[in-house]
Amino acid sequence: MSDDLTRVLQQLRREYVAEAPVRLQELRKDIAAFRAGEPDAVSSLLLRFHRLAGSGGSYGFPDISEVSRETERWLKKSPPPGPDDAEVLDTAVGRLAESFDKAGSELSGQSSPVPPTDFGWSALIIGQENPFTTQIAESLRSSGYRVSTLVESDAEVPTSETPDLVVLVSGEIKADPYAVAAGLSGRRALRPRSIVLVDRTGSSDRLRAVAAGIDTVFSAERVLSELPTYAKTLARIGTPPSSVLIVMEDRDEAERLSRTLEQANILVSRCENPMGAREVLARDLPDLLLLDAHLPGLDGFTLARLVRQDPRFALLPIVFLANERTLQDQIEALRAGADHFLTKPVEPLLLLQLVINRAERGRRIREMVHRDGLTGLLNHATLMAELEHAVEYTRRHGEPFAFLMVDVDHFKRVNDTHGHLAGDQVLLHLARVFQSTVRASDIIGRYGGEEIGIILRRCNREGAVVLAGKIRDALFERPAVTRDGKSIPVRVSIGIAACPEDGLSANVIVASADRALYKAKTSGRDRIETC
Question: How many CB atoms lie within 10 A of CB 485?
Fold first, then answer.
Protein backbone atom coordinates (compact mmCIF):
# COMPACT_ATOMS: atom_id res chain seq x y z
CA MET A 1 0.00 0.00 0.00
CA SER A 2 1.37 3.44 -0.90
CA ASP A 3 2.41 6.01 1.70
CA ASP A 4 -0.27 8.43 0.45
CA LEU A 5 -3.01 5.84 0.85
CA THR A 6 -1.76 4.79 4.27
CA ARG A 7 -1.91 8.39 5.46
CA VAL A 8 -5.47 8.76 4.13
CA LEU A 9 -6.68 5.63 5.87
CA GLN A 10 -4.95 6.43 9.14
CA GLN A 11 -6.53 9.87 9.06
CA LEU A 12 -9.96 8.26 8.74
CA ARG A 13 -9.23 6.07 11.78
CA ARG A 14 -8.10 9.06 13.81
CA GLU A 15 -11.26 10.97 12.92
CA TYR A 16 -13.36 7.99 13.99
CA VAL A 17 -11.64 7.91 17.39
CA ALA A 18 -11.92 11.70 17.72
CA GLU A 19 -15.71 11.36 17.61
CA ALA A 20 -15.69 9.10 20.69
CA PRO A 21 -16.87 11.81 23.16
CA VAL A 22 -19.98 12.47 21.06
CA ARG A 23 -20.78 8.76 20.66
CA LEU A 24 -20.32 8.04 24.37
CA GLN A 25 -22.41 11.04 25.37
CA GLU A 26 -25.26 9.81 23.15
CA LEU A 27 -25.09 6.43 24.89
CA ARG A 28 -25.10 8.00 28.36
CA LYS A 29 -28.16 10.07 27.43
CA ASP A 30 -30.01 6.94 26.30
CA ILE A 31 -28.94 5.08 29.46
CA ALA A 32 -30.44 7.88 31.56
CA ALA A 33 -33.69 7.47 29.60
CA PHE A 34 -33.49 3.68 30.10
CA ARG A 35 -32.99 4.15 33.84
CA ALA A 36 -36.03 6.47 33.89
CA GLY A 37 -38.13 3.76 32.25
CA GLU A 38 -38.74 5.50 28.91
CA PRO A 39 -40.14 2.81 26.57
CA ASP A 40 -38.18 3.90 23.49
CA ALA A 41 -34.78 3.89 25.24
CA VAL A 42 -34.04 0.21 24.50
CA SER A 43 -34.56 0.59 20.74
CA SER A 44 -32.32 3.65 20.67
CA LEU A 45 -29.59 1.86 22.65
CA LEU A 46 -29.84 -1.18 20.39
CA LEU A 47 -29.31 0.99 17.33
CA ARG A 48 -26.31 2.83 18.80
CA PHE A 49 -24.55 -0.32 20.04
CA HIS A 50 -25.31 -2.08 16.75
CA ARG A 51 -23.71 0.71 14.74
CA LEU A 52 -20.64 0.73 16.96
CA ALA A 53 -20.36 -3.04 16.59
CA GLY A 54 -20.21 -2.66 12.82
CA SER A 55 -18.11 0.49 12.56
CA GLY A 56 -15.59 -0.60 15.21
CA GLY A 57 -14.68 -3.65 13.15
CA SER A 58 -14.70 -1.73 9.88
CA TYR A 59 -12.23 0.84 11.23
CA GLY A 60 -9.95 -1.83 12.67
CA PHE A 61 -10.83 -1.60 16.38
CA PRO A 62 -12.07 -5.09 17.39
CA ASP A 63 -12.35 -4.22 21.10
CA ILE A 64 -14.98 -1.57 20.33
CA SER A 65 -16.87 -4.03 18.14
CA GLU A 66 -16.72 -6.84 20.73
CA VAL A 67 -18.02 -4.72 23.64
CA SER A 68 -20.81 -3.28 21.50
CA ARG A 69 -21.95 -6.61 20.09
CA GLU A 70 -21.90 -8.20 23.56
CA THR A 71 -24.08 -5.38 24.94
CA GLU A 72 -26.43 -5.57 21.97
CA ARG A 73 -27.01 -9.27 22.66
CA TRP A 74 -27.64 -8.49 26.34
CA LEU A 75 -30.30 -5.93 25.42
CA LYS A 76 -32.04 -8.53 23.25
CA LYS A 77 -32.20 -11.25 25.91
CA SER A 78 -35.46 -12.65 27.24
CA PRO A 79 -36.90 -11.52 29.57
CA PRO A 80 -35.70 -8.05 28.55
CA PRO A 81 -33.56 -6.09 31.04
CA GLY A 82 -35.20 -3.34 33.06
CA PRO A 83 -34.17 -0.02 34.64
CA ASP A 84 -32.65 -1.85 37.63
CA ASP A 85 -30.13 -3.44 35.26
CA ALA A 86 -28.76 -0.11 34.03
CA GLU A 87 -25.41 -0.72 35.76
CA VAL A 88 -24.61 -3.27 33.05
CA LEU A 89 -24.91 -0.48 30.48
CA ASP A 90 -22.79 1.86 32.59
CA THR A 91 -20.09 -0.81 32.67
CA ALA A 92 -20.32 -1.30 28.91
CA VAL A 93 -19.87 2.42 28.27
CA GLY A 94 -16.89 2.41 30.62
CA ARG A 95 -15.33 -0.45 28.66
CA LEU A 96 -16.02 1.39 25.40
CA ALA A 97 -14.33 4.51 26.78
CA GLU A 98 -11.28 2.40 27.65
CA SER A 99 -11.28 0.88 24.16
CA PHE A 100 -11.45 4.31 22.53
CA ASP A 101 -8.64 5.53 24.82
CA LYS A 102 -6.53 2.51 23.84
CA ALA A 103 -7.20 3.17 20.15
CA GLY A 104 -6.27 6.81 20.62
CA SER A 105 -3.00 5.85 22.28
CA GLU A 106 -2.16 3.51 19.40
CA LEU A 107 -2.71 6.32 16.91
CA SER A 108 -1.23 9.17 18.94
CA GLY A 109 2.30 8.75 17.70
CA GLN A 110 1.36 8.80 14.04
CA SER A 111 0.28 12.44 13.72
CA SER A 112 -1.46 15.19 15.61
CA PRO A 113 -5.06 14.43 16.66
CA VAL A 114 -7.97 15.96 14.82
CA PRO A 115 -10.75 17.84 16.60
CA PRO A 116 -14.20 16.28 16.94
CA THR A 117 -16.59 17.12 14.14
CA ASP A 118 -20.36 17.51 14.09
CA PHE A 119 -20.62 15.17 11.13
CA GLY A 120 -19.00 11.78 10.77
CA TRP A 121 -19.02 11.11 7.04
CA SER A 122 -15.92 10.91 4.85
CA ALA A 123 -15.25 11.15 1.14
CA LEU A 124 -12.22 10.14 -0.92
CA ILE A 125 -11.56 11.82 -4.26
CA ILE A 126 -9.34 9.82 -6.60
CA GLY A 127 -7.73 12.16 -9.09
CA GLN A 128 -4.98 14.72 -9.53
CA GLU A 129 -5.14 17.80 -7.34
CA ASN A 130 -6.12 20.75 -9.51
CA PRO A 131 -8.73 23.55 -9.44
CA PHE A 132 -11.47 21.19 -10.65
CA THR A 133 -10.96 18.50 -7.99
CA THR A 134 -10.47 21.25 -5.40
CA GLN A 135 -13.93 22.58 -6.26
CA ILE A 136 -15.39 19.08 -5.90
CA ALA A 137 -13.73 18.71 -2.51
CA GLU A 138 -15.07 22.07 -1.35
CA SER A 139 -18.60 21.18 -2.46
CA LEU A 140 -18.43 18.00 -0.35
CA ARG A 141 -17.04 19.84 2.67
CA SER A 142 -19.96 22.26 2.42
CA SER A 143 -22.22 19.19 2.70
CA GLY A 144 -20.56 18.19 5.98
CA TYR A 145 -18.04 15.62 4.69
CA ARG A 146 -14.41 15.22 5.64
CA VAL A 147 -12.57 15.01 2.33
CA SER A 148 -9.28 13.41 1.34
CA THR A 149 -7.70 13.26 -2.10
CA LEU A 150 -5.76 10.26 -3.33
CA VAL A 151 -3.15 11.29 -5.91
CA GLU A 152 -2.04 8.02 -7.42
CA SER A 153 -0.94 7.33 -10.95
CA ASP A 154 -2.41 3.84 -10.73
CA ALA A 155 -5.24 4.74 -8.31
CA GLU A 156 -4.45 2.02 -5.79
CA VAL A 157 -7.62 1.28 -3.83
CA PRO A 158 -8.03 1.03 -0.03
CA THR A 159 -8.15 -2.39 1.62
CA SER A 160 -9.63 -1.28 4.96
CA GLU A 161 -11.27 1.69 6.72
CA THR A 162 -13.13 2.45 3.52
CA PRO A 163 -14.56 5.97 3.06
CA ASP A 164 -18.32 6.39 2.81
CA LEU A 165 -18.21 8.09 -0.59
CA VAL A 166 -15.59 7.63 -3.33
CA VAL A 167 -15.45 10.08 -6.24
CA LEU A 168 -13.57 8.90 -9.32
CA VAL A 169 -12.61 11.71 -11.70
CA SER A 170 -12.11 10.35 -15.21
CA GLY A 171 -9.25 11.95 -17.09
CA GLU A 172 -7.44 12.68 -13.82
CA ILE A 173 -6.16 9.14 -13.16
CA LYS A 174 -4.13 6.91 -15.42
CA ALA A 175 -5.92 3.74 -14.36
CA ASP A 176 -9.21 2.65 -15.90
CA PRO A 177 -11.89 4.17 -13.60
CA TYR A 178 -14.23 1.22 -14.27
CA ALA A 179 -11.54 -1.21 -13.09
CA VAL A 180 -10.97 0.90 -9.98
CA ALA A 181 -14.72 0.91 -9.25
CA ALA A 182 -14.96 -2.84 -9.78
CA GLY A 183 -12.12 -3.36 -7.31
CA LEU A 184 -13.90 -1.25 -4.70
CA SER A 185 -17.30 -2.88 -5.33
CA GLY A 186 -15.94 -6.39 -4.93
CA ARG A 187 -14.90 -5.81 -1.33
CA ARG A 188 -18.31 -6.70 0.14
CA ALA A 189 -18.44 -5.35 3.72
CA LEU A 190 -15.62 -2.89 2.95
CA ARG A 191 -17.38 -1.46 -0.09
CA PRO A 192 -17.92 2.31 0.12
CA ARG A 193 -21.52 3.36 0.63
CA SER A 194 -21.42 4.94 -2.79
CA ILE A 195 -19.05 5.15 -5.76
CA VAL A 196 -19.59 7.97 -8.23
CA LEU A 197 -17.86 8.80 -11.49
CA VAL A 198 -17.26 12.36 -12.67
CA ASP A 199 -17.10 12.29 -16.46
CA ARG A 200 -14.62 14.97 -17.60
CA THR A 201 -14.19 13.52 -21.08
CA GLY A 202 -17.84 13.16 -22.08
CA SER A 203 -17.25 9.56 -23.12
CA SER A 204 -18.53 7.57 -20.15
CA ASP A 205 -20.17 4.22 -20.81
CA ARG A 206 -23.25 4.06 -18.57
CA LEU A 207 -23.76 0.32 -19.05
CA ARG A 208 -20.13 -0.41 -18.23
CA ALA A 209 -20.38 1.90 -15.20
CA VAL A 210 -23.34 -0.07 -13.82
CA ALA A 211 -21.52 -3.35 -14.39
CA ALA A 212 -18.47 -2.01 -12.53
CA GLY A 213 -20.54 -1.07 -9.48
CA ILE A 214 -20.64 2.71 -10.04
CA ASP A 215 -23.77 4.10 -8.41
CA THR A 216 -24.14 7.24 -10.48
CA VAL A 217 -22.33 9.32 -13.11
CA PHE A 218 -22.10 13.12 -13.03
CA SER A 219 -21.10 15.25 -15.96
CA ALA A 220 -18.31 17.75 -15.40
CA GLU A 221 -20.76 20.59 -16.06
CA ARG A 222 -23.30 19.50 -13.44
CA VAL A 223 -21.22 17.81 -10.74
CA LEU A 224 -20.76 20.92 -8.57
CA SER A 225 -24.52 21.53 -8.42
CA GLU A 226 -25.71 17.91 -8.15
CA LEU A 227 -23.03 16.13 -6.10
CA PRO A 228 -23.70 18.06 -2.83
CA THR A 229 -27.39 17.11 -2.92
CA TYR A 230 -26.49 13.48 -3.63
CA ALA A 231 -23.93 13.45 -0.82
CA LYS A 232 -26.35 14.94 1.71
CA THR A 233 -28.98 12.36 0.79
CA LEU A 234 -26.44 9.56 1.18
CA ALA A 235 -25.52 10.84 4.65
CA ARG A 236 -29.10 11.27 5.81
CA ILE A 237 -30.14 7.71 5.04
CA GLY A 238 -27.53 6.69 7.60
CA THR A 239 -25.10 3.83 7.68
CA PRO A 240 -26.22 0.23 7.87
CA PRO A 241 -27.84 -1.50 9.64
CA SER A 242 -31.19 -1.38 8.01
CA SER A 243 -34.20 -2.41 10.05
CA VAL A 244 -36.60 -5.15 8.95
CA LEU A 245 -39.95 -6.23 10.35
CA ILE A 246 -40.77 -9.91 9.71
CA VAL A 247 -44.44 -10.87 10.01
CA MET A 248 -44.68 -14.67 10.03
CA GLU A 249 -46.56 -17.28 12.07
CA ASP A 250 -43.88 -19.98 11.61
CA ARG A 251 -41.44 -19.23 14.45
CA ASP A 252 -38.71 -21.56 13.17
CA GLU A 253 -38.74 -20.02 9.70
CA ALA A 254 -38.80 -16.51 11.14
CA GLU A 255 -35.83 -17.37 13.34
CA ARG A 256 -33.90 -18.75 10.36
CA LEU A 257 -34.54 -15.61 8.33
CA SER A 258 -33.59 -13.43 11.30
CA ARG A 259 -30.24 -15.19 11.71
CA THR A 260 -29.46 -14.65 8.04
CA LEU A 261 -30.22 -10.94 8.21
CA GLU A 262 -28.59 -10.29 11.58
CA GLN A 263 -25.30 -11.72 10.30
CA ALA A 264 -25.22 -8.70 7.98
CA ASN A 265 -25.82 -6.25 10.87
CA ILE A 266 -29.50 -5.79 9.99
CA LEU A 267 -31.85 -5.06 12.89
CA VAL A 268 -34.77 -7.50 12.90
CA SER A 269 -38.13 -7.32 14.66
CA ARG A 270 -40.63 -10.16 14.48
CA CYS A 271 -44.40 -10.50 14.81
CA GLU A 272 -46.52 -13.64 14.47
CA ASN A 273 -49.79 -12.01 13.49
CA PRO A 274 -51.14 -8.90 11.71
CA MET A 275 -52.36 -7.20 14.90
CA GLY A 276 -48.89 -7.34 16.41
CA ALA A 277 -47.46 -5.94 13.19
CA ARG A 278 -49.88 -3.00 13.23
CA GLU A 279 -48.87 -2.21 16.81
CA VAL A 280 -45.19 -2.19 15.86
CA LEU A 281 -45.84 -0.02 12.81
CA ALA A 282 -47.78 2.45 14.94
CA ARG A 283 -44.55 3.11 16.87
CA ASP A 284 -41.74 2.52 14.40
CA LEU A 285 -40.90 2.90 10.73
CA PRO A 286 -38.78 -0.03 9.51
CA ASP A 287 -36.79 0.08 6.29
CA LEU A 288 -38.52 -3.00 4.91
CA LEU A 289 -41.52 -5.24 5.66
CA LEU A 290 -41.00 -8.98 5.09
CA LEU A 291 -44.51 -10.39 5.01
CA ASP A 292 -45.85 -13.94 4.87
CA ALA A 293 -48.68 -14.13 2.37
CA HIS A 294 -50.72 -16.45 4.60
CA LEU A 295 -51.23 -15.29 8.18
CA PRO A 296 -53.75 -16.20 10.90
CA GLY A 297 -56.90 -14.11 11.04
CA LEU A 298 -55.91 -11.57 8.41
CA ASP A 299 -53.97 -12.60 5.30
CA GLY A 300 -50.79 -10.81 4.33
CA PHE A 301 -52.37 -9.20 1.27
CA THR A 302 -55.02 -7.45 3.36
CA LEU A 303 -52.40 -6.34 5.89
CA ALA A 304 -50.30 -4.86 3.07
CA ARG A 305 -53.29 -2.89 1.79
CA LEU A 306 -53.90 -1.51 5.28
CA VAL A 307 -50.25 -0.54 5.58
CA ARG A 308 -50.29 1.21 2.21
CA GLN A 309 -53.31 3.31 3.28
CA ASP A 310 -51.13 5.07 5.85
CA PRO A 311 -49.24 7.92 4.10
CA ARG A 312 -46.17 7.21 6.26
CA PHE A 313 -45.79 3.80 4.59
CA ALA A 314 -46.52 4.74 1.00
CA LEU A 315 -42.82 4.24 0.11
CA LEU A 316 -42.06 1.36 2.49
CA PRO A 317 -40.64 -1.64 0.57
CA ILE A 318 -42.82 -4.74 1.07
CA VAL A 319 -41.52 -8.22 0.19
CA PHE A 320 -43.93 -11.17 0.25
CA LEU A 321 -43.07 -14.76 1.13
CA ALA A 322 -45.17 -17.78 0.22
CA ASN A 323 -44.82 -21.58 0.15
CA GLU A 324 -45.76 -21.73 -3.54
CA ARG A 325 -45.14 -19.25 -6.34
CA THR A 326 -48.67 -19.35 -7.79
CA LEU A 327 -49.64 -16.78 -10.38
CA GLN A 328 -52.68 -15.78 -8.31
CA ASP A 329 -50.59 -15.08 -5.22
CA GLN A 330 -48.13 -12.98 -7.23
CA ILE A 331 -50.97 -10.95 -8.74
CA GLU A 332 -52.54 -10.46 -5.30
CA ALA A 333 -49.19 -9.34 -3.91
CA LEU A 334 -48.74 -6.74 -6.65
CA ARG A 335 -52.29 -5.46 -6.17
CA ALA A 336 -51.61 -5.14 -2.45
CA GLY A 337 -48.57 -2.97 -3.10
CA ALA A 338 -45.72 -5.51 -2.98
CA ASP A 339 -42.27 -4.71 -4.31
CA HIS A 340 -41.11 -8.32 -4.59
CA PHE A 341 -42.29 -11.90 -4.15
CA LEU A 342 -40.15 -14.82 -2.86
CA THR A 343 -40.88 -18.53 -2.54
CA LYS A 344 -40.00 -20.38 0.67
CA PRO A 345 -37.52 -21.74 1.56
CA VAL A 346 -35.59 -18.64 0.54
CA GLU A 347 -31.98 -18.85 -0.55
CA PRO A 348 -30.11 -16.88 2.18
CA LEU A 349 -27.81 -14.98 -0.21
CA LEU A 350 -30.74 -13.94 -2.40
CA LEU A 351 -32.74 -12.80 0.63
CA LEU A 352 -29.80 -10.83 2.00
CA GLN A 353 -29.05 -8.98 -1.22
CA LEU A 354 -32.73 -8.28 -1.86
CA VAL A 355 -33.27 -6.84 1.61
CA ILE A 356 -30.11 -4.71 1.51
CA ASN A 357 -30.84 -3.29 -1.93
CA ARG A 358 -34.56 -2.69 -1.40
CA ALA A 359 -34.04 -1.13 2.04
CA GLU A 360 -31.25 1.13 0.80
CA ARG A 361 -33.25 2.28 -2.22
CA GLY A 362 -36.33 2.83 -0.08
CA ARG A 363 -34.31 4.98 2.32
CA ARG A 364 -32.98 7.11 -0.50
CA ILE A 365 -36.40 7.65 -2.03
CA ARG A 366 -37.97 8.51 1.32
CA GLU A 367 -35.18 10.96 2.12
CA MET A 368 -35.59 12.75 -1.20
CA VAL A 369 -39.36 12.95 -0.77
CA HIS A 370 -39.64 13.68 2.96
CA ARG A 371 -36.55 15.74 3.85
CA ASP A 372 -35.78 19.44 3.66
CA GLY A 373 -32.93 19.95 1.21
CA LEU A 374 -30.92 22.33 3.40
CA THR A 375 -31.21 21.03 6.97
CA GLY A 376 -31.98 17.36 6.42
CA LEU A 377 -34.95 17.69 8.77
CA LEU A 378 -38.42 16.54 7.78
CA ASN A 379 -40.09 18.93 5.35
CA HIS A 380 -43.32 20.75 6.18
CA ALA A 381 -45.69 18.22 4.61
CA THR A 382 -44.05 15.24 6.32
CA LEU A 383 -43.89 17.02 9.68
CA MET A 384 -47.63 17.70 9.51
CA ALA A 385 -48.31 14.07 8.54
CA GLU A 386 -46.31 12.91 11.58
CA LEU A 387 -48.22 15.37 13.76
CA GLU A 388 -51.53 13.96 12.50
CA HIS A 389 -50.27 10.46 13.27
CA ALA A 390 -49.23 11.51 16.78
CA VAL A 391 -52.67 13.01 17.41
CA GLU A 392 -54.39 9.85 16.16
CA TYR A 393 -52.15 7.70 18.38
CA THR A 394 -53.13 9.86 21.36
CA ARG A 395 -56.82 9.42 20.52
CA ARG A 396 -56.47 5.63 20.43
CA HIS A 397 -54.03 5.03 23.29
CA GLY A 398 -54.23 8.13 25.46
CA GLU A 399 -50.48 8.71 25.22
CA PRO A 400 -49.61 12.42 25.57
CA PHE A 401 -47.15 14.33 23.44
CA ALA A 402 -45.96 17.91 23.16
CA PHE A 403 -45.25 20.07 20.12
CA LEU A 404 -42.57 22.75 20.12
CA MET A 405 -42.54 25.61 17.63
CA VAL A 406 -39.05 27.13 17.56
CA ASP A 407 -38.23 30.41 15.83
CA VAL A 408 -34.78 32.00 15.41
CA ASP A 409 -34.72 35.48 16.88
CA HIS A 410 -33.64 38.27 14.51
CA PHE A 411 -32.83 35.84 11.71
CA LYS A 412 -33.16 38.58 9.08
CA ARG A 413 -30.39 40.43 10.87
CA VAL A 414 -28.12 37.38 10.43
CA ASN A 415 -28.80 37.33 6.69
CA ASP A 416 -28.33 41.09 6.33
CA THR A 417 -25.11 41.15 8.35
CA HIS A 418 -23.38 37.94 7.30
CA GLY A 419 -25.10 36.99 4.04
CA HIS A 420 -27.62 34.33 3.09
CA LEU A 421 -24.99 31.58 2.98
CA ALA A 422 -24.25 32.25 6.66
CA GLY A 423 -27.99 32.17 7.33
CA ASP A 424 -28.15 28.71 5.77
CA GLN A 425 -25.25 27.60 7.95
CA VAL A 426 -27.07 28.88 11.05
CA LEU A 427 -30.14 26.81 10.15
CA LEU A 428 -27.97 23.74 9.55
CA HIS A 429 -26.24 24.34 12.90
CA LEU A 430 -29.65 24.65 14.56
CA ALA A 431 -30.74 21.31 13.12
CA ARG A 432 -27.59 19.57 14.39
CA VAL A 433 -27.94 20.99 17.91
CA PHE A 434 -31.59 19.92 18.07
CA GLN A 435 -30.76 16.41 16.84
CA SER A 436 -28.08 16.02 19.51
CA THR A 437 -30.35 17.37 22.29
CA VAL A 438 -33.70 15.61 21.84
CA ARG A 439 -34.33 11.88 22.17
CA ALA A 440 -33.95 9.50 19.25
CA SER A 441 -37.72 8.93 19.23
CA ASP A 442 -38.58 12.64 18.90
CA ILE A 443 -39.41 14.07 15.48
CA ILE A 444 -37.90 17.28 14.09
CA GLY A 445 -39.06 19.10 10.96
CA ARG A 446 -38.62 22.43 9.23
CA TYR A 447 -42.02 24.10 9.52
CA GLY A 448 -41.03 26.96 7.24
CA GLY A 449 -38.32 29.61 6.88
CA GLU A 450 -36.49 29.83 10.20
CA GLU A 451 -39.26 28.00 12.11
CA ILE A 452 -38.69 24.42 13.25
CA GLY A 453 -41.25 22.06 14.78
CA ILE A 454 -40.45 19.27 17.23
CA ILE A 455 -42.81 16.46 18.26
CA LEU A 456 -41.92 15.12 21.71
CA ARG A 457 -43.46 11.67 22.11
CA ARG A 458 -44.60 10.47 25.54
CA CYS A 459 -44.04 13.94 26.94
CA ASN A 460 -46.34 16.25 28.90
CA ARG A 461 -46.27 20.03 29.14
CA GLU A 462 -43.85 20.11 32.07
CA GLY A 463 -41.40 17.78 30.36
CA ALA A 464 -41.56 19.89 27.19
CA VAL A 465 -40.64 23.02 29.16
CA VAL A 466 -37.58 21.23 30.56
CA LEU A 467 -36.51 20.06 27.09
CA ALA A 468 -37.05 23.55 25.66
CA GLY A 469 -34.73 24.91 28.32
CA LYS A 470 -32.08 22.35 27.35
CA ILE A 471 -32.36 23.40 23.71
CA ARG A 472 -31.98 27.06 24.61
CA ASP A 473 -28.95 26.31 26.83
CA ALA A 474 -27.32 24.10 24.19
CA LEU A 475 -27.56 26.88 21.62
CA PHE A 476 -26.11 29.36 24.11
CA GLU A 477 -23.14 27.06 24.71
CA ARG A 478 -22.62 26.24 21.03
CA PRO A 479 -22.78 29.31 18.77
CA ALA A 480 -22.87 28.75 15.02
CA VAL A 481 -19.51 29.09 13.24
CA THR A 482 -19.40 30.10 9.58
CA ARG A 483 -17.01 28.55 7.09
CA ASP A 484 -14.73 31.59 7.39
CA GLY A 485 -14.53 31.14 11.18
CA LYS A 486 -17.00 33.81 12.34
CA SER A 487 -18.99 32.98 15.47
CA ILE A 488 -22.71 33.79 15.34
CA PRO A 489 -24.69 33.54 18.61
CA VAL A 490 -28.10 31.95 18.04
CA ARG A 491 -31.11 32.79 20.22
CA VAL A 492 -34.53 31.21 19.80
CA SER A 493 -38.07 31.67 21.06
CA ILE A 494 -40.11 28.52 21.75
CA GLY A 495 -43.87 28.02 21.91
CA ILE A 496 -45.26 24.81 23.43
CA ALA A 497 -48.58 23.04 22.94
CA ALA A 498 -49.60 19.78 24.62
CA CYS A 499 -51.89 17.05 23.35
CA PRO A 500 -54.60 16.24 24.31
CA GLU A 501 -55.01 19.31 26.58
CA ASP A 502 -54.59 21.94 23.85
CA GLY A 503 -56.41 20.15 21.03
CA LEU A 504 -56.99 16.93 19.15
CA SER A 505 -56.05 17.87 15.60
CA ALA A 506 -52.75 18.78 14.03
CA ASN A 507 -53.98 22.20 12.90
CA VAL A 508 -55.24 23.09 16.38
CA ILE A 509 -51.99 21.96 18.01
CA VAL A 510 -49.95 24.07 15.55
CA ALA A 511 -52.18 27.09 16.15
CA SER A 512 -51.80 26.69 19.91
CA ALA A 513 -48.01 26.41 19.67
CA ASP A 514 -47.94 29.43 17.36
CA ARG A 515 -49.86 31.55 19.89
CA ALA A 516 -47.46 30.46 22.61
CA LEU A 517 -44.54 31.33 20.33
CA TYR A 518 -45.91 34.84 19.84
CA LYS A 519 -46.13 35.22 23.62
CA ALA A 520 -42.54 34.00 23.96
CA LYS A 521 -41.22 36.49 21.40
CA THR A 522 -43.03 39.42 23.02
CA SER A 523 -42.59 38.54 26.68
CA GLY A 524 -38.93 39.48 26.87
CA ARG A 525 -38.33 36.82 29.54
CA ASP A 526 -36.81 33.38 28.99
CA ARG A 527 -38.36 33.10 25.50
CA ILE A 528 -40.28 29.91 26.37
CA GLU A 529 -44.07 29.94 26.67
CA THR A 530 -46.84 27.35 26.82
CA CYS A 531 -50.32 27.68 25.45
Answer: 6
**pLDDT for 404-443, tens place per residue?**
999 988 888 888 888 888 888 888 888 888 887 887 778 8
Cβ–Cβ under 8 Å, residues 338 and 319: yes
Coil/strand/helix, residue 197: strand
The verdict on 439 and 462 lying in the same domain is: yes
What single string gives the DSSP state of each residue in 96-156? HHHHHHHHHHHHHTTS------S---EEEEES--SHHHHHHHHHHHTTT-EEEEE--SS-P
CA nearest 237: which of 121, 109, 325, 130?
A: 121
CATH number at residue 456: 3.30.70.270
Among the listed residues 40, 42, 41, 72, the one whose alpha carbon sits nearest the alpha carbon of residue 54: 72
Please tell me whether the peptide bond between 500 and the residue prior to it is cis, using omega within 30 degrees of 0.
Answer: yes
Is position 20 within any domain? yes
pTM: 0.53
Query: The domain spanning residue 137 has which CATH number?
Result: 3.40.50.2300
CA dihedral 354, 355, 358, 359 (to 10 degrees): -160
For residues 511 and 179, which has the higher predicted lDDT (pLDDT)? 511
**Residues 394, 474: one domain?**
yes
- Give the tens place of pLDDT for each residue, 44-66: 888 888 888 877 776 778 889 88
DSSP of 266-303:
-EEEEESSHHHHHHHHHH---SEEEEESS-SSS-HHHH
Residue 115 clears pLDDT 70, i.e. is over it: no
Query: In terms of domains, do 390 and 506 share one?
Result: yes
Query: Could you tell me what percentage of the chain is helix, strand and coil, using 3-state DSSP and rounding each to the nearest 5?
Result: 55, 15, 30
326 lies in the same domain as 405:
no
